[in-house]
């Protein structure tokens, strides 16, 4: 999945001469936390509600402008950036949103909420499902064998997610179409696999 599929393609923007107080009101009005700063159709900065609140002084609301406090070279992505890469940037830089650029032109805005929604869809969390957490060695053939055992026992795998490594083993989270997990768990345990947790 690419950023283009989940970004807001028509974001609210402001010019750099906008007073800080007016920018905050705009954010509150539209229930957003980030604003791209645009001048002559070019993105020149990025401002967050947190930054605006930090400089919010009642006596200076009409003196300080967005241009005075905006980030001039924010972390950004393109429409073709993968959702995974965008999520990594958000996590690594501890930010709540990213401008989406083509050169210096703004084509969209991507927020943590957009990313969360994308991963919920990608992981099939909105579908009725069951989950099985197993601690197994990280050899490819082991994963193939476990997957086959699950399917032979009546489980239909939606997706598999990787969890933390513990010594020479790793936790794998199998999301399955809603089913009775008892025969699957019984088969796996008989084959010596460790079931850490499950949700019917």
Structure description:
The protein has 200 residues and is of the alpha+beta class. Helices cover 32% and strands 30% of the residues. The protein is built from seven helices and eight strands. It has helices at residues 20-30, 49-54, 66-69, 83-93, 112-122, 140-152, 182-190; strands at residues 34-39, 42-48, 97-102, 105-111, 129-137, 157-166, 169-177, 194-199. The strands form three sheets. The protein has a four-stranded antiparallel sheet with strand order 6-7-5-8, covered by helices on one side. Strand 6 (157-166) and strand 7 form a beta hairpin. Helix 6 (140-152) packs across helix 7.
Short description:
The chain is 32% helix and 30% strand. With 200 residues, it is α+β, with helices and mostly antiparallel strands. A hairpin with a 2-residue loop joins β6 and β7.
CATH superfamily of the largest domain: CBS-domain
Using the coordinates shown, work out and report the CATH topology of the largest domain. CBS-domain
| Gross geometry | elongated
Within the largest sheet, what's the order of strands? 6-7-5-8
Count of distinct strands:
8
The major sheet is characterized as:
4 strands, antiparallel
SSE string: HEEHHHEEHEHEEHE
Low-confidence stretches: none
Average pLDDT: 90
N-to-C terminal Cα separation, in Å? 28 Å
* The CATH class of the largest domain: Alpha Beta
Q: Write down the domain tally.
A: 2
Strand percentage lies at: 25-35%
Q: Structural class, please?
A: alpha+beta
Share of helix, binned: 25-40%
Number of helices: 7
SSE map:
Blueprint: H1 20-30, E1 34-39, E2 42-48, H2 49-54, H3 66-69, H4 83-93, E3 97-102, E4 105-111, H5 112-122, E5 129-137, H6 140-152, E6 157-166, E7 169-177, H7 182-190, E8 194-199
Antiparallel strand pairs: 1-2, 3-4, 5-7, 5-8, 6-7
